[in-house]
Design a protein that fits this description.
This protein has 70 residues and is α+β, with helices and mostly antiparallel strands. It has one domain: Beta-grasp domain (Ubiquitin-like (UB roll), Roll), CATH 3.10.20. 17% of the residues lie in helices and 31% in strands. It contains one helix and five strands; from the N terminus they run E-E-H-E-E-E. A hairpin with a 2-residue loop joins strand 3 and strand 4. The longest helix is centred in the middle third of the chain and has 12 residues. The radius of gyration is 12 Å and the shape is globular. This is Thiamine biosynthesis protein ThiS. It comes from Hyphomonas atlantica.
Length: 70
């Protein structure tokens, strides 16, 4: 099914959760999957719900990586 991730179309399998998507993205980019925030259809999804939130066709997902600095 087709979704949008950070403004780009992406194909994912039915039943994919936000946690599964984050693992896929981190594997592709080599980035640490911790320290991220996810917005699904303009609503922030609490980290505690990533494993149980199933992505649906047409969802618009924004994944933001926190960056520390001083």
């Amino acid at each position: 099914m087709l979704i949008t991730v950070n403004g780009e179309s992406r194909e994912v399998e039915a039943g994919t959760t936000l946690a599964m998507l984050v693992l896929q993205l981190s594997g592709e980019s080599g980035r640490d999957p911790r320290g991220i925030a996810i917005e699904r259809n303009l609503e922030i999804v609490p980290k505690s719900e990533h494993a149980t939130t199933v992505i649906e066709a047409g969802d618009r997902i924004e994944v933001v990586q926190f960056v520390g600095g001083g």
